[in-house]
Amino acid sequence: MPDKLHKTKGIVLRTVKYGETSVIVTLFTELFGIQSYLVNGVRASSKKGTGKANMFQPAAILDLVVYHNELKQLNRIKEFKWSILYRHVLTDVPKNAVALFMVELLTKCLKQPESNPDLFHFVEDCFLYLDNSSGTITANLPLFFALHLPGHFGFRIADNYSERYHFLDLQEGGFTAIQPTHPHFLEEKQSVVTSQLLKVMQPEELDDIKLNHEFRRQLLHRYETYYALHIQDFGTMKSLPVLREVLG
Fold first, then answer.
1. Is 98 in the same domain as 68?
2. Is 193 a member of any domain?
3. 135 Cβ partners below 8 Å, 6+ apart?
């Protein structure tokens, strides 16, 4: 059965050098979910290859023409070009740190190559907001992304917060009136802010949530715990210490 050609958008998750001039790139594609592709010649020093490798930086969004064969672990890309030309995400240090955090978190959640266009559009929108956002939105976007991403994987936190239900049980994924007997819970201000963030539908609303750096850092650490409780072999986030430094 011959490989079929398809047009799709793709978000670059990871790139590994292969041979003298090639790369293997892992992409989250709109059509097929997470996929790996061999791209020849993009690291060549010839005029044809110059500048092509930088298109495969994590968080880059590309328009692709790809060969697809479900029986193959590694397919090929026939054509690629920028789908979105970022102004800041790949060059601005704080925004790039946020982007790398989002890429790593998404990669840890994507276990199977399956189509999920709603998730693709959510992630794409978040990168576009990041590129165009101001300081407060940029700083709050990792919290927003970390709380809304689980909705696409079936473990979203239920927003049943009230003055009575003010403990967030990270194991159960909901707010409770009684302090849990295990250590994985949030209380008081962390619970209130988490409930506010869960209510945010568009990232521009993040401008209204004023938090200090230390509080954001603590929340991100707790959200990392939430993921570790709900995703097998989640491990720890390599991008989180960098993000904490940059946002500080």
1. no
2. yes
3. none
Only one residue has tokens 């409930």, namely: 195
- Listed in sequence order, the residues at least 6 apart from 123 whose beta carbon sits closer than 8 Å to its beta carbon are 11, 28, 102, 106
Spatial CB neighbours of 111, under 8 Å, sequence gap ≥ 6:
none
Do 105 and 163 fall into the same domain? yes
Type of residue found at 9: K
Residue 48 pLDDT > 90? no
What is the token pair recorded at 65? 């023409």
The reply to whether 123 and 195 lie within a common domain is: yes
pLDDT in tens, 173-211: 999 999 999 999 999 999 999 999 999 999 999 999 999
- Sign (positive or negative) of CA dihedral 206, 209, 213, 216: negative
Please say which residue of 24, 53, 82 terminates a domain.
Answer: 82
Query: What is the mean pLDDT of the segment spanning 126-135?
Result: 94
Phi, psi of 206 (to 5 degrees): -65, -20
Residue type, 51: G
Asked if 25 and 123 sit in the same domain, the reply is no
Which residue from 190, 116, 176, 117 is spatially nearest to 147, judged by alpha carbons? 190
Q: What is the pTM of this model?
A: 0.94
Containing structural domain, residue 56: 4-82
